[in-house]
Specification:
single chain; 5-stranded parallel beta sheet; 6 helices; 5 strands
Length: about 150
C-alpha cells in the first residue's frame, strides 16, 4: 500500500465535511502525501497499533504526523493522545490537535498530555486552507524527526 519512506498523514476526523475540506486543502496546497483517514478514536488506535481491522498492517510505515480531532465517537481525541504518548513505539509521534473546540480545558489537557500543536479549525474556508497549508509545510517539510523515527 505505502512505502516506508513515504510521509503518511493520519487524519482522525469524524465529520465528513471537515475531512473533505482538509483533503481539498492539502491538494490545493500541493501536499500530495498519502493520507489515511480514520473516523473515530478506536479506529485511530487500531491503525496506530495494528490491531482490529488493521491487524497485520506494516508497523514500519508510521505516520509523519497525526491530525487529531478531539470530539470523536467511541474514544475521544484526548484519550487517543494519551494512548499514543503511553506507548514506546508512538510516544514521539508528532500529534496536532485540529479541532473546532474553544474549550480552554481541552487546550490545557492536550498540552499536558504532550500534544505538539493545537490548531483551531477556522470557520472561514480560506483561513482553514491557509492553516492546513502551514501545517503541511511545517510538519511534512520543515520539522526534524529523531533519527530513530526517520528510519522507522
Amino acid at each position: 500500500m505505502f512505502e516506508p519512506s513515504q510521509r503518511v498523514i493520519l487524519l482522525v476526523e469524524d465529520n465528513a465535511d471537515d475531512e473533505l475540506m482538509t483533503l481539498r486543502a492539502f491538494r490545493k496546497s500541493n501536499i500530495h502525501n498519502p493520507v489515511v483517514v480514520v473516523r473515530d478514536g478506536a479506529e485511530a488506535v487500531d491503525y496506530l497499533f495494528a490491531q482490529g481491522r488493521y491487524a497485520g498492517r506494516d508497523l514500519s510505515i508510521r505516520p509523519q504526523v497525526v491530525l487529531l480531532d478531539l470530539h470523536l465517537p467511541r474514544i475521544d481525541g484526548l484519550e487517543v493522545l494519551r494512548r499514543i504518548r503511553a506507548h514506546e513505539q508512538t510516544c514521539t509521534l508528532p500529534v496536532v490537535i485540529l479541532t473546532s473546540s474553544n474549550e480552554e480545558r481541552d487546550l490545557v489537557e492536550g498540552y499536558q498530555l504532550g500534544v505538539n500543536s493545537f490548531v483551531h479549525k477556522p470557520v472561514d474556508v480560506t483561513a482553514f486552507f491557509e492553516a492546513v497549508r502551514q501545517l503541511g509545510m511545517y510538519w511534512l517539510v520543515l520539522n526534524e524527526l529523531p533519527a530513530k523515527r526517520r528510519n522507522a
